[in-house]
Design brief:
The chain is built from ten helices and 13 strands. It has 371 residues and is an alpha/beta fold. The two termini are 43 Å apart. Bound molecules: adenosine-5'-triphosphate (ATP), 6-O-phosphono-beta-D-fructofuranose and magnesium ion (MG). Pathway: Carbohydrate degradation; glycolysis; D-glyceraldehyde 3-phosphate and glycerone phosphate from D-glucose: step 3/4.
Length: 371
Amino acid sequence: MSLLPMSAPTCPRRVGILTGGGDCPGLNAVIRAVTQSLLRQCGAEVIGIEDGFAGLLCEPPRARRLDWDAVSGILLLGGTILGSSNRANPLDSAQATALTLANVRRLGLDALVVIGGDGSMTIAHALAQQGLAIVGVPKTIDNDLYGCERSFGFDTAVATVTEALERIQTTAHSHRRVMIVETMGRWAGWIALEAGLAAAADAILLPELDYDLPALARHCQARLLRERYSVICIGEGAKALGGTATLQATTWPMTDPAAGAIAPLRLGGVAHRLNQALQPLLQAEVRATVLGHVQRGGSPTPFDRVLATLYGNQAAQLLLQGHFGRMVTLSGGQLGHIALAEVAQQQRTVPPGHPLLQAAQQIGVCLGQPD
Ligand SMILES: Nc1ncnc2c1ncn2[C@@H]1O[C@H](COP(=O)(O)OP(=O)(O)OP(=O)(O)O)[C@@H](O)[C@H]1O
Ligand SMILES: O=P(O)(O)OC[C@H]1O[C@](O)(CO)[C@@H](O)[C@@H]1O
Ligand SMILES: [Mg+2]
């Protein structure tokens, strides 16, 4: 890994830190690393903002000081000690943006560390354009952040889904059933793809590749005859050829049309929809399991603890060097950073021909493609 030099040409006096978007394992590891790195290297005061951007959208702002004691013993803890929000949005209106900026000034912050996913980085970029000194840290179980090959939290989610698939397999075998397991991931299929491969799923269905129902049914039927059971791992954003994605609800109205590229929709339930469609085509019982928030909970894996620690420390180095408007990244196995302008409004989905897709296809995993 290429590490930045340890010298500190600039020394922020007071740094804010917040966790935005859906929570994920490893957030506390980042909070700890940022805090310890800054306290040790320049003695900056670290201020934890509560509940993501929600803590900056109220009067007075909600924040507390983080010292050595506050971050001691949190490396292993899931969730975030600061709380998070995937609703609060400083870009909702000009007043919301102004209040956020005023609260940053009121807290006396020289810089802000935003730990979040694509939505949070879009907000961070907009605030950076308004003059805030911001460094982003890539968080999301979905692993869909542009310019970064691994967000922390993804490894833990994949481990959780893999274990769930293994447990589903034994009961599927006992009852000669076809079991459909739905993962999170929004419009990116990374979780379903990696966990499906890790747990030897027979079929892996991704948002990036619309599935052909008759081809999937034929694959499952053949597998049933051969091995008594079949397990399908499906990403929540997947859809049938010519069909639509399965939505639970719109979560809240988007008040700023300019922000609208990524609609604030809640996905979920595609496994039940597929269950209904597949059942008449098969001679075995079909059942669906939606894994849900279990994928976001719990203690981070050792990989995520290390990655989150490296990211947190790297964010502190960027602050010390006065590199603002950047998000920490991992690219080609190297730590680095990318302009928030490049990350904002982008998503990293599974590209066609990705080596994992090729390998899955070559070893006989059904990706739902027509025969
Ligand atoms: N394209 C966008 N432009 C502006 N704001 C957005 C956009 N997408 C999401 N947001 C806002 O960003 C906030 C966080 O978004 P989101 O819930 O997607 O979390 P995130 O930080 O992307 O993390 P994750 O997706 O992993 O949960 C929400 O308040 C949402 O309104
Ligand atoms: O906690 P909520 O609001 O239901 O959000 C769920 C969404 O957040 C994520 O867990 C992380 O982006 C997605 O995989 C999922 O679609
Ligand atoms: Mg997001």
